[in-house]
Specification:
By secondary structure, the protein is α/β, with parallel strands linked by helices. It has six helices and seven strands, in the order αβαβββαβαβαβα. The chain folds into two domains: about 40 residues, no CATH class; about 120 residues, Rossmann fold (3-Layer(aba) Sandwich). It is globular. The two termini are about 15 Å apart.
């Protein structure tokens, strides 16, 4: 705690900014694991124009991703299924789908709750192609200073992440899916607190 009080820890800085046409290089850089900073994938120019190249004019790249498969929550190489509690609720869904489609990806939005195992199984069953990847980004935010976190807030953040990940894991096993990747995202400050 003394280190926090003395502000010995510095905020993580942006290390490198990649643009959309360099997405494969972005993931390659990230996989090296030689950084402890933010990596940014820039989607638009300052004018608002998407930085994506015409999918039909891009050069061939060797990849292990399957263009005929669905990737739950991220793809860009074929099919993309978003599984969220708020699907269809906001006015931005159509714009969001149009933006993702503009980079050559088929988009499907499924409404449900990842903490509900039946919803997870239904969402995985509704993908338009075989599911080959999952990026788990759901989180409950209860950011507090370290000494201000109570057990209720900590449980809300941590237990929901555990339950939703467990539901995804079990459904993948039950369906016998052969995933290329299963990535988990979380909030460190939601779990450990923050200085303030």
């Amino acid at each position: 705690m003394d280190h926090f009080a003395k502000c010995d820890f510095k905020l993580i800085q942006v290390d490198t900014v990649f643009s959309v046409p360099s997405v494969l290089e972005t993931f390659g850089y990230m996989q090296q694991g030689k950084h402890i900073s933010k990596i940014v994938l820039k989607m638009r120019e300052s004018t608002g124009k998407l930085l994506a190249e015409d999918v039909n004019n891009t050069k061939s790249v060797s990849t292990e991703f399957d263009a005929a498969a669905s990737y739950l929550l991220i793809s860009g190489l074929g099919n993309l299924t978003f599984f969220t509690r708020s699907a269809g609720v906001g006015n931005h869904d159509a714009d969001f789908k149009r933006e993702i489609k503009s980079i050559g990806c088929t988009v499907q939005i499924v409404r449900g709750d990842v903490t509900n195992a039946e919803d997870v199984a239904r969402a995985m069953g509704e993908t338009p192609a075989p599911l080959r990847g999952i990026i788990q980004m759901f989180m409950v935010l209860r950011d507090q200073t370290f000494d201000g976190i109570d057990i209720g807030d900590w449980n809300a953040v941590t237990m929901s992440k555990v339950q939703e990940t467990w539901n995804l894991h079990n459904t993948v096993l039950e369906k016998g899916l052969d995933l290329d990747f299963f990535l988990l995202f979380s909030s460190l400050s939601g779990t450990l607190g923050q200085v303030g």
